[in-house]
UniProtKB/TrEMBL annotation, chains A, B:
Main location: membrane
Limits of the PTS EIIA type-2 domain: 460-603
Membrane association type: Multi-pass membrane protein
InterPro entries, per database record: Cation/H_exchanger_TM, CPA2_transporter, Na+/solute_symporter_sf, PTrfase/Anion_transptr, PTS_EIIA_type-2_dom
UniProt xrefs under Pfam families: Na_H_Exchanger (PF00999), PTS_EIIA_2 (PF00359)
Organism the protein comes from: Poriferisphaera corsica
Record protein name field: PTS system fructose-specific EIIABC component
GO CC annotations, alphabetized: membrane
Protein keywords: Ion transport, Membrane, Transmembrane, Transmembrane helix, Transport
Signal peptide: none
SUPFAM superfamilies: Phoshotransferase/anion transport protein
Residue ranges of the TM segments: 14-31, 43-67, 87-109, 121-142, 162-183, 195-218, 250-271, 283-304, 310-327, 339-358, 364-386, 398-417, 429-450
Origin: domain of life: Bacteria
């Protein structure tokens, strides 16, 4: 197709836009699912996808291949260009993604808990701000050149805003990242989860307001802009700073923000609660509510963006106000949640790594200094605040690491400061590395501190190879033989040894269970880890079950002799997984090992949903 | 916030982007729901929202208010600017919306039906192309100046491409619009619906390929570009036309498109069918499948955009390939459907009216000529084709009006031709008016021809005023008195007359039903239309029901004497609406008339879902 002019997207732009979003989404979800399998928050894999697709790896590789003549075009620059229509359209889509993500995060907030924890939240967030802010302010004040102050962050006029900025950069908390981590760890609705979210919310509010002050303080004169391309924007920045963010303007912004927050959480919340039944009575259902709530969140997002506080705050506040209503049905929540968490959220997190080369701009001293000061300051400050708020030591530690996740918000602030000429690229990379590292470690550390353990599921023990569909066997011996043979291939033990051990156990008493199940099992000395092999036998084998039914789903459960508890765990997992008649029925209808696993996975998800508190 | 440079979105851009999307979505949904209440396809209201928000009304009003000094800024230009970052970002979002919409449309296509109808589809689409194409070609060939040929559409070199273009513009069918109309009318899955969709698909394929030929034929020299801003793009158009769309290039594009189509519908379809169980077995459920299918659709969309055939085709084909798999669960379909049809689709349709002033560029002769020729040509051509394919007269008529909807595709083509200097603004408006008019009328006309009647629901008879929550009455007489009084306010009859008539009926036999329901009713001579008043009585009134339970939901049903069938209809609607124990329970828990209606609306939607063929 055609280039429609400077203000339109060309066919190439659209191709790159769609492909770019598809690749971001695809890789982010693949790595996110991988992280989840290693029991990590999926946001970890999603951010990693961005680093891989960004200039650090994909970009560098493209450049290399072009230089070597293997590629005629730089693929990275084609798909994720640094300027032009597609970049703007992609940025717009990512902004909308971030906004919707924060809306979902807001929906999850239980306002009554937050209000109940008001005092604690203030303690945690203030203590969590003061300490890292001081660290950042002091080193920035004394070592601006070493740290990487930009052209407008040095000299008499630049020293103060640069120091304040670094203080803020050290003390900000990433609401979206931490909320996602809490959701992933399934503790977002716990008291501690809510305390972290309310503290982070206060924290960010203070941070953004502080950043507005930095902009107001920026020197108008004495500009040394090294990059000619930046002159235009920097000039505008200054004009903006003078016109819009003078000190009285800053005070006004703060006041309006607080009024907006107060109004939304009182009148706005009530209005949504009153409006929802009307929409549900008069509009198509459930689609009407869906449009309504997304519309409200976008309007609030636009409003806070207009105030200069960033769109994600408005969306978050809208989510809190709407999510509180008992009239928002489970089904609407679920549709919003599924679509946003599986489409928009991965795209947003992957986008973080998309604009930075983590190798060329890497200065180890600055990175370490920023990382250590931010982590130590934030963790110890929040810990102190949490202890003040009378939390136990374990909870206070977990919370303090939760508060340390800087994520996207730190990066957005850094980006703004870099564009304003306040910091240089090396400091920018240090801030990004710090933000990513804290985001990456806070989940796992919280998990360790809180001794959170994912309950294992039967499917965690299974691969395609461990499922046999319709074996040819016609009696118990043959069936155990087939299962043992497959187990032998997987464990490298001898099939005959397995067979003998299982048969020995079977001779004591047959292992048929009611409902067409059977669990032949054995403990083996030289087995390094548990091994499960399942046969789906459509004709059924008589395993002498109490209800007399032939076994159609037969699970061979082998466990190491020194792990007696694992045998119990596997037996109960197997029985529980197939306890519902519907699941057994579905398992009988499928045609391949993969489909068998799909049934199990789906059943586990349904089980988890049915038992979730929400 | 700050302007980050020419290739980034400023805070103002982001504010306008979020606000613009919110306003488009909000008004489109409000008018869409309104259209639905008048039993029209909701797309009608959605397109109308765009015309209201576009330059025609909102834009003109803003300009007027600024000129009069009532506004300091032109609100329309702030929210929907004609150039700059926000416009590009909004265009990108709209492109993605159109792509996802077509994906859902594709999901709904039942491939086996399309294949079964292959011959018919070819007849319908070819006949539907030949006639309007001839009309368009002939008048364009002889009257280029009158019609509004652009600078490159006149003279010896321009005559042929201009004539071909107008032929194509007359014969194109709008897949997204027509598909939405069919979905709205609930006949997308009928044989005729599938035939319309398969014909429209073939039709568009031919149309787009034809348009590529037009571009190849465009004269390189003899350019007279009146608008200096267009020079840049027009130059590029020519370069594109020469470099990329030479005749061998055209053939290649056609071949690759056909190969892509064939591969996706065979191997791609099989691959998706095989991949879905894997994703469902290994990824989180149901989110994993959601990401997977959206990702595939975006990749296919990018590929067809790259080919020059427009992204929506790839998404559509991906939808067809994936939707065919039995492994795509009902729940995943539902989440995709709800989110896309209620968020992306209204935004896309509203966007159509956003760039055109329908008043200033309106030339009645051209508009009428284009409208009449396109409609007559398309309708009679498709009718002829449908009769050839052995459809009955009624079905053939309905189908021919279905094929006449030109919608967005006609507009996109017109837009491209206008930017290429092939047509002028007046012809562009005529094409848009024709596209919109045909889109607006085709749904209602089909509805009339097919005598489609929406089954009425109880809620269609009710407003807040017709629901009484917890009246103070304690016996039958008082209750009927209260209900009659409310009915009198609504109907302007005398309360006493109603009371007397109802009581008379009640004396023959009490109207209590099992499950806590009661239906006092009467036929009245001077009642112009049926009137229902429902009382939700928490304590219950004894209406002598067979099961002895006091009535807690009491429906007063008044019908005109000359409509005996309406009384039966209302009685059965009332009984059916509250037949499920769960619904009665919910109705007892609510606190206001609106909430009561919300319960009814939700119940009706659940009912419709449970009985839908899908």
């Amino acid at each position: 197709m055609l280039q429609l002019g400077a203000s339109s997207l060309s066919a190439n732009d659209i191709t790159a836009l769609l492909l770019g979003i598809a690749i971001l989404l695809g890789l982010a979800r693949i790595l996110g699912e991988r992280a989840r399998r290693y029991r990590q928050p999926s946001v970890l894999g999603e951010i990693l996808a961005g680093i891989i697709l960004g200039p650090t790896i994909f970009g560098a590789l493209s450049t290399y291949l072009v230089a070597k003549g293997f590629l005629s075009h730089n693929l990275f620059e084609l798909i994720f260009p640094l300027e032009g229509g597609e970049k703007i359209a992609l940025d717009g889509f990512i902004t909308i993604s971030a906004t919707l993500l924060l809306f979902v995060v807001g929906l999850e907030v239980d306002l009554s808990t937050v209000i109940r924890q008001g005092k604690e939240a203030i303690a945690v967030s203030l203590a969590g701000i003061v300490l890292p802010f001081t660290f950042g302010f002091v080193i920035a004040w004394y070592l601006p050149d070493f740290l990487g102050a930009g052209p407008r962050g040095i000299g008499e006029d630049g020293q103060l805003p640069f120091a304040i900025f670094l203080g803020i950069a050290m003390s900000i908390t990433a609401l979206p990242v931490i909320a996602k981590i809490l959701l992933d760890l399934n503790i977002a609705k716990s008291d501690m989860g809510m305390l972290i979210i309310s503290s982070a919310m206060l924290n960010d509010l203070v941070g953004w307001i502080g950043f507005a002050i930095v902009l107001a303080l920026l020197p108008v004169t004495a500009m040394v802009i090294p990059d000619p391309a930046a002159i235009h924007s920097a000039t505008e920045v200054v004009t903006d700073a003078v016109n819009n963010t003078g000190s009285s303007q800053v005070v006004t912004t703060i006041l309006i923000t607080l009024v907006f927050l107060a109004l939304m959480l009182t009148l706005g919340r009530l209005a949504c609660h009153k409006a929802l039944p009307y929409v549900q009575a008069r509009w198509s259902w459930p689609g009407g509510v869906l449009s309504f709530v997304i519309c409200i969140s976008l309007i609030c997002a636009a409003f806070t963006e207009y105030l200069g506080i960033h769109s994600i705050f408005g969306a978050f506040v809208a989510g809190v106000a709407i999510g509180d209503s008992t009239h928002l049905s489970e089904r609407t929540r679920d549709t919003i949640n599924q679509f946003i968490m599986n489409i928009f959220s991965p795209i947003f997190f992957a986008s973080i790594g998309l604009r930075i080369n983590f190798i060329s701009e890497f200065n180890i001293s600055i990175v370490l200094l920023v990382l250590v000061l931010a982590t130590v300051g934030k963790v110890s400050g929040s810990y102190f605040g949490a202890r003040l708020a009378k939390l136990g030591k374990r909870e206070a530690s977990a919370l303090s690491f939760g508060m340390a996740a800087q994520g996207a918000v730190g990066i957005i602030l850094g980006q703004l400061a870099r564009e304003a000429g306040l910091i240089n690229d090396e400091l920018m990379v240090a801030i990004v590395v710090m933000a990513l590292t804290t985001s990456l470690i806070s989940g796992p550390i919280m998990q360790i501190i809180l001794r959170l353990q994912h309950q294992r599921k039967l499917i965690d023990f299974l691969t395609d190879k461990q499922v046999i569909i319709d074996p040819t066997s016609t009696d118990i011996m043959q069936t155990i033989g087939e299962l043992s043979k497959r187990a032998a291939e997987i464990t490298n033990l001898k099939a005959h040894d397995i067979y003998k051990a299982v048969l020995q156990r079977e001779r004591i008493m047959h292992t048929g269970l009611p409902g067409g199940l059977a669990v032949p099992h054995a403990r083996l000395d030289n087995l390094p880890k548990p091994c499960v092999v399942i046969a789906r036998h459509r004709n059924g084998i008589d395993f002498d079950a109490p209800d007399g039914k032939p076994a159609q789903i037969i699970g061979l459960l082998l466990t190491p002799t020194d792990q007696p508890e694992t045998q119990i765990e596997l037996l109960s997992l197997f029985a529980k997984s197939f306890s519902r008649n519907e699941i057994r029925q579905r398992a009988l209808e499928i045609k391949s090992p993969t489909e068998f696993l799909a049934v199990l996975n789906q059943a586990a998800a349904e089980e988890a949903e049915a038992t979730s508190p929400h």
